[in-house]
Amino acid sequence: MEPRSRSSRHALSTRDNLEKERLRHRSGGYFRYEGIRNPIDVAANCPSYLKPKERMTAGPYCEEINYFERETKKIVKDEMTEAKRAVTYNREEHRWRCINSKDHAQDARVDRMMKDPMMGRKNVSGQPFNLVNHNYATTPAGAQLEHHDNMIRYRSKVREASLAMRNHIGFNPIIGEQTYGISLPPQPKPSAMAFAQIP
């Protein structure tokens, strides 16, 4: 145990100071001593704290201070409102700018697809004729397909006439004459479009 100094011994000369010192250093249980010098003092970070100079403010100067505080609060509130408005405006402007750029990109994509003949080939029919009304397409491929179909019909007529001649169909042996004549249709000729180059 270290010896006490003269000042500490003089501080403990009275009974109250001695009891307070004992309470201050007491340990045990859940009690912990908090050394508060003045219970009515206000902490420096408390809203009710006043500096010594402000404590002496009195008269109309108090209202001037209150007016200044109110005006400061108004300015802060207006600045917060303007900041929120600026954030909302920038966000909305960015959103509409993104929508506009998306629309421009979509239009540019459509124009690019319309200008490129190889882009939309998936939407072209695989055969050069209309699947609904069976009309031939007005293209060289459609003309070639039409000539090909006409030649198939012509060859069927030629085969029909050949079989009729070999089987003597239409010949009357009693009178020795052909009852009805066997004729062939004229051979179809391709149109000028059929000789064009197919893209």
Essential attributes:
199 residues; mainly alpha; 5 helices; 2 strands; 52% helix; 2% strand; rod-shaped
Question: What report would you give on this structure?
Answer:
- Among the domains are: 9-51, no CATH class; 128-169 and 183-192, no CATH class.
- 52% of the residues lie in helices and 2% in strands.
- It is mainly α.
- A hairpin with a 4-residue loop joins β1 and β2 (177-178).
- It has helices at residues 6-11, 15-24, 52-55, 60-115, 140-166; strands at residues 171-172, 177-178.
- Strands 1-2 form a two-stranded antiparallel ribbon.
- It is rod-shaped, with a radius of gyration of 56 Å.
Any chance you could write out the topology, listing elements then pairs?
Elements: H1 6-11, H2 15-24, H3 52-55, H4 60-115, H5 140-166, E1 171-172, E2 177-178
Antiparallel strand pairs: 1-2
Mean pLDDT: 86
Q: How many runs of DSSP E, i.e. beta strands? A: 2
Shape label = rod-shaped
Number of helices: 5
N- and C-termini, Cα separation: 112 Å
Q: Which spans have pLDDT < 50 for at least 5 consecutive residues?
A: none
Radius of gyration: 56 Å
| Fraction in beta strands | under 5%
Cross-sheet strand order for the largest sheet: 1-2
Structural class: mainly alpha
